[in-house]
Write a structure and sequence with these properties.
The complex is a heterodimer of chains A (about 120) and B (about 110). Chain A contains no helices and 11 strands. Chain A has about 120 residues and is mainly beta. In chain A, strands 2, 4, 5, 6, 9, 10 and 11 form a 7-stranded mixed β-sheet that branches. A 4-stranded antiparallel β-sheet of chain A has the order 1-3-8-7, with no helix packed on it. In chain A, strand 4 and strand 5 form a beta hairpin. Chain A starts with a strand and ends with a strand. Chain B is mainly β and about 110 residues long. Chain B contains no helices and 10 strands. In chain B, a hairpin with a 6-residue loop joins strand 4 and strand 5. Classes of the chains: A mainly beta (about 120), B mainly beta (about 110). Chains A and B meet through strand 4, strand 5, strand 9 and strand 10 of A and strand 5 of B.
Chain lengths: ~120, ~110
């Protein structure tokens, strides 16, 4: 079945440590996204990528880094510079736009919950 | 950036029709309006998408007026399992996901 796989489901970070969240998709989508969700809140965009080897900052990119070396993979690193990393992280993918230029629905993984030890 | 406004929460009873309205500003001419459903500790799931007028699928209907400044998601005959957060979104890559509408369906 096609879909998006995020791992691990739960992750714990020690002070001063970088951690990497995995996101893999087999939907052949060009675009991939990372969101952060805090309790009772909506989704906030961290980074997005429209093509391999290119990515753009979202609204809350500080303290995070990404890479897009392969079309199917878009890992997110939460660096020690992110002082409040405890949150639910969601990865998504989509095709870019349809023939008339309309935005397309995003397909989401089931998230990684990150906590500080 | 395109932003949306939705009611924070709604209550309903099983078997009723639920309508959730969303206001969108700055939606681009060629952007669709998309609705998602999210259960706790899961990623949002696509429900329905439309450009204008009415769209219907097996789970919901979407009504969009000619000015496209709002949209209404209609859930027919809700059940307890429809208790979730519903997000509307209209726009491109950097469109903001709002806080959504928390729908609570009671028996």
């Amino acid at each position: 079945d096609g879909g998006i796989t995020q791992s691990p489901k739960y992750l714990f970070r020690k002070e001063g440590q970088n951690v990497t969240l995995s996101c893999e998709q087999n939907l052949n989508h060009d675009a991939m996204y990372w969101y952060r969700q805090d309790p009772g809140q909506g989704l906030r965009l961290i980074y997005y990528s429209q093509i391999v080897n290119d990515f753009q900052k979202g609204d809350i990119a500080e303290g995070y880094s990404v890479s897009r070396e392969k079309k199917e993979s878009f890992p997110l690193t939460v660096t020690s510079a992110q002082k409040n990393p405890t949150a639910f992280y969601l990865c998504a993918s989509s095709i870019l736009r349809d023939a008339v230029g309309g935005n397309q629905p995003q397909h989401f993984g089931d998230g990684t919950r990150l906590s500080i030890l | 950036l395109a932003k949306t406004t939705q009611p924070i929460s709604m209550d309903s009873y099983e078997g009723q029709e639920v309508n959730i309205t969303c206001s969108h500003n700055n939606i681009a001419t060629n952007d669709y309006i998309t609705w998602y459903q999210q259960f706790p500790s899961q990623g949002p799931r696509f429900i329905i998408q439309g450009y204008k007028t009415k769209v219907t699928n097996e789970v919901a209907s979407l009504f969009i007026p000619a000015d496209r400044k709002s949209s209404t998601l209609s859930l027919p005959r809700v059940s307890l399992s429809d208790t979730a957060v519903y997000y509307c979104r209209g726009g491109g890559f950097k469109t903001i996901f709002g806080a959504g509408t928390r729908l609570f369906v009671k028996a």
